[in-house]
Amino acid sequence: MLQNAYSIASEESTVKGHIPDIVWFHKFDETSTTKTTRSLRIQDADTERCSRVLYIIVFRKLIPITSLSGDDFLSAWWQAVLCHYTLWKHDVHHHDVNPNNLMVFWLNGQWIGVLNDYDLSSIKHDGPSGKERIGIIPFMALDLLDEDGLEGKVTHLYRHDAESLVWVLVWVYLRYQGGKLSRNGRLLDEWLKVGALRCGEKKTAFQVATVRRL
Fold first, then answer.
1. Which helix (H) or strand (E) holds 74?
2. CA atoms of 171 and 169, how far apart (whole Å)
3. Of the ranges 29-33, 54-58, 171-175, which one carries the lowest mean pLDDT score?
4. Following CA atoms 24, 96, 121, 89 in sequence, which dihedral angle do they give, to the nearest 10 degrees?
């Protein structure tokens, strides 16, 4: 997945420097589960097809975007938005936008936003059907948290990830002060304590109430 992202980065400035930078990588072929099952004389087609191997990947050190505030945060967040959009146009679909996957590093006097963690990503033509429920519930799009979405009847589109980016913005704005998580009276805590359907209802109510205030 990252190899695809690196290829895109070589041509797109909105991606170059905004994806994880691999410092070192090693694949331990001797740990292949296929070798283990064969040595144990276990004949299983599923095991052969879904073989696992240990990988170690070392990335450039990054820090959470939640460490920033004000214009620094907004600039880094927008850089991640542009990176995500460009990757999606080139068929690399992230699927798991949340505050933990938006990172930053300092370079030449400014914070650089990075879209991190491609474990749940897919390539448009080779990935899952797009109807799997992927992501951390409080940041998932409302369409994916209603009954149809939870039953896999809603195809995961770009606008769903884009909505997740907006929920990240709301989350950080209401729960962090000066780059630190508020100690008392944190808003939106209930989103973390309920199931997907109930969280969707709470987020919808929050959205309606916000629009009314505006």
1. helix 70-89
2. 5
3. 29-33
4. -110
Residue-range definition of the domain harbouring residue 45:
22-58
Tell me which residue of 110, 104, 115 sits closest to 165, measured CA to CA.
Answer: 115
- Of the listed ranges 2-16, 40-54, 60-74, 164-178, the least confidently predicted one is 40-54
Q: Is 99 helix (H, G, I), strand (E, B) or coil?
A: helix
Q: Which of 62-66, 69-73, 95-99, 133-137 has the lowest mean pLDDT?
A: 133-137
The type of residue at 179 is G
Determine contact, residues 161/172, Cβ cutoff 8 Å: no
Task: Tell me the one-letter amino acid at 59.
Answer: F
CB 5 within 8 A of CB 117: no
Token couple for 92: 């690399």
**Strand-strand pairing, 176-177 and 102-107:** unpaired
Contact status, residue 138 vs residue 188, Cβ threshold 8 Å: yes
> Which residues, in sequence order, are CB contacts of 29 under 8 Å at separation 6+?
53
Contact call for residues 19 and 60 (beta carbons, < 8 A): no
Are residues 126 and 96 located together in one domain of the fold? yes
Which structure tokens are listed for 212?
């009314």
Contact 171, 139 (CB under 8 A): yes
Whether 82 and 167 share a structural domain: yes
13 located within any domain: no
CATH of the domain at 187: 1.10.510.10
- Which of these, 120, 135, 123, 37, lies nearest to 88 by C-alpha position? 123
